[in-house]
TrEMBL record:
Similarity remark: Belongs to the Rab GDI family.
Highest taxon above the source species: Eukaryota
Keywords carried by this UniProt record: Cytoplasm, GTPase activation, Transferase
Keyword Transcription tagged: no
Region (Disordered): 115-188, 606-634
Gene encoding the protein: Chml
Principal location: cytoplasm
The name this protein goes by in its record: RAE2 geranylgeranyltransferase
GO molecular function: GDP-dissociation inhibitor activity; GTPase activator activity; transferase activity
Transmembrane portions of the chain: none
Pfam families: RAE1_2_domI_C
GO cellular component terms, semicolon-separated: cytosol; nucleus; Rab-protein geranylgeranyltransferase complex
Length: 634
């Protein structure tokens, strides 16, 4: 039930298809999931042990007929490797500590795994006309202590802040006050931060929503457009990424993004400000000026920047913090396209191009699962599948056999890559992603406001290695407890995750458990706990690379190493259009007021029941379109 599969399931259910969505895991999201702290510890233990899925139906091969053949599926998930976790605090003190009970206000689709869909029914959905949720920040004091506000989507992609009892005020796409409001210093002097211990983290474990994959949503990206179009965004809430950071000459600096940021920046000289604005203006419509870049099309973007009369600091900011492309591998055109995309996303919902879903990235697949369930899709967790059943004559897949020995027939089958056996993936060459998750006590760049969502790109030290993307989340994102920060590090793998990422962690953080440390180390954020792991990147694998798959079996990939989610959305739409050419992909559900009822059907209902004709259409409408909770509970 990862993101591509969940989008396909929602699209199929919305177009009137009957959908069965099964997952061998006991939580939603697959490798896109979010966990509480105790849930993540269980996930770590499970992946370190690598136990096989139990085979409850040993004689399932008897169900395969003479004119059929079986394609066995994998019993072991091999997408996660080299899992190593470390505690930099007194771990013994947490041995007898238990995680506190449920929070008073759980997320719409909480990160607690199998209970996620059930929890959805406990919270009333926003009105049907609402769409993209919260991008507007609250004051730090409000953000950490109360349920975050929602934002509503009207006919135009605008953000509307939902104050405590009002849904009225709106902010246009070009408004930049969101980012400014979040960055404003707190008027109340902050008290001394409390000392956090590992036992406290364990006790407050349900306040953590820790993503397996670290991504942000481009405000004009494909996923945001799909959330708005399908109205799935009403199931989620969002927060702006408040700042873009750069790591240069051993220091973390804030990168000016908007025009106002550039001219208010104290880091840049006036000449540099003019240089930067001139270059960014060129990037916005670079296609109109081919003579300025055509001779450098075969060069790297870094080489092209050196020809543009930019200072070294400006080249660094543009390459690593705006375009966010490789210094050695990205061409001039790729760099210009990435810079243009960054600039086009500025100002739509805030002062940076990015949004982050409250309660973690794992909310997004569950939102699409909910849409599928509302339109009749059936969900079964802890439900492994033994094999695909293929008809020898037609060569098409006709059924699956599950671990109970049931044969389930269908016309189309969508399989996540990790379910395929080694014999099917013999010719597939996978890439790997190196991931690390840290819990720290302060931000990598302290400011007056503690509630910052930051993205930082750390350039590679050695040639041939990739830059490391660092995303730092504060407690108002509902992903960590108060007075802590959740830090995600991601890069394409060259070695194990720890070998790839630990040098960057050591540059930015204090890992020393001893009290007597050097002054330079004491100024760095202190890490309480960390985990490193490698995740398979199956994006970009063509279907014909898999051996012996029937034409009506489609393969979805796991997460890729890119910052955005465009790959998953493109893949889901491609699969849907191949199955149902000409069908609209994830259209918005109809408003109850717009549903037209057949007069003969109403007359038949009237003859069978004694209640009046006036109340009957309203009752039917509520059952069809507002029955989210009953459908989800089933």
């Amino acid at each position: 039930s990862g993101l591509p599969e969940s989008i396909v399931a929602a699209a199929c259910a919305r177009s009137g298809q009957r959908v069965l969505h099964v997952d061998s895991r006991n939580y939603y999201g697959g490798n896109w999931a979010s966990f509480s702290f105790s849930g993540l510890l269980s996930w770590i233990k499970e992946n370190q042990q690598k136990t096989d899925i139990s085979d409850e139906c040993g004689d399932w091969r008897k169900l395969i007929l003479e004119n059929e053949e079986a394609i066995p599926l994998s019993k072991k998930d091999k997408t996660i490797q080299h899992v190593e976790d470390f505690c930099f605090d007194d771990q013994d003190s947490a041995e007898d500590v238990e995680e506190a009970g449920a929070l008073s206000k759980l997320p719409i689709f909480g990160a607690s795994g199998a209970e996620g869909l059930a929890q959805a029914s406990e919270k009333e959905s926003p009105p049907a006309e609402s769409a993209l949720a919260e991008a507007e920040s609250q004051e730090p004091e409000k953000a950490t202590g109360s349920e975050p506000a929602s934002a509503m989507e009207g006919n135009d992609p605008e953000i509307t802040s939902e104050k405590e009892s009002s849904h009225s005020s709106a902010l246009g796409e070009s408004t930049l006050e969101l980012g400014k409001a979040e960055a404003a210093p707190s008027e109340i002097s902050a008290p001394e931060p409390k000392k956090i211990t590992y036992s406290q983290i364990v006790r407050e474990g349900r306040r953590f929503n820790i993503d397996l994959v670290s991504k942000l949503l481009y405000s004009r990206g494909l996923l945001i457009d799909l959330l708005i179009k399908s109205n799935v965004s009403r199931y989620a809430e969002f927060k702006n990424a408040t700042r873009i950071l750069a790591f240069r000459e051993g220091k973390v600096e804030q990168v000016p993004c908007s025009r106002a940021d550039v001219f208010n920046s104290r880091q840049l000289a006036m000449v540099e400000k003019r240089m930067l604005m001139k270059f960014l203006t060129f990037c916005l419509d670079y296609e109109q000026h081919p003579d300025e870049y055509q001779e450098y099309e075969s060069s790297t973007f870094a080489q092209f920047l050196r020809t543009r009369k930019l200072t070294p600091s400006l080249q660094h900011f543009i390459l690593h913090s705006i375009a966010m492309v490789s210094e050695t591998d990205s061409s001039t055109l790729e760099g210009l396209q990435a810079t243009k995309k960054f600039l086009q996303c500025l100002g739509r919902y805030g002062n940076t191009p990015f949004l982050f879903p409250l309660y973690g990235q794992g909310e997004i697949p569950q939102c699409f699962c909910r849409m599928c369930a509302v339109f009749g899709g059936i969900y079964c967790l802890r439900h492994p599948v033994q094999c695909l059943v293929v008809d020898k004559e037609s060569g098409r897949c006709k059924a699956i056999v599950d671990h109970f020995g049931q044969r389930i027939s269908a016309n189309y089958f969508i399989v996540e890559d990790s379910y395929l056996s080694e014999s099917t993936c013999t010719n597939v060459c996978y890439r790997q992603i190196s991931r690390a998750v840290l819990i720290s006590d302060q931000s990598v760049l302290n400011t007056d406001s503690e509630q910052q969502v930051s993205i930082l790109t750390v350039p590679p030290v050695d040639p041939g290695k990739a830059a490391v993307c660092v995303i730092e989340l504060c407690s108002s994102t509902m992903t960590c407890m108060k007075d802590t920060y959740l830090v995600h590090l991601t890069c394409p793998s060259t070695k194990t995750a720890r070998e790839d990422l630990e040098p960057v962690v050591q540059k930015l953080f204090n890992l020393n458990t001893e009290k007597e440390t050097e002054k330079e180390e004491q100024e760095k954020p202190r890490v309480f706990w960390a985990v490193y792991f490698n995740m398979r990147d199956s994006s970009g694998v063509e279907k014909n690379s898999y051996t012996g798959l029937p034409s009506n079996v489609y393969v979805c990939s796991g997460p890729d190493s890119a910052l955005g989610n465009d790959c998953a959305v493109k893949q889901a739409e491609t699969i849907f259009q191949e199955m149902f050419p000409g069908e609209d992909f994830c259209p918005a559900p109809p408003n109850p007021e717009d549903i037209i009822y057949d007069e003969e059907e109403i007359a038949a209902e009237e003859s069978g029941f004694s209640n009046s004709l006036e109340t009957k259409p309203e009752s039917s409408t509520e059952e069809c379109c507002s029955g989210d909770d009953s459908a989800v509970k089933k």
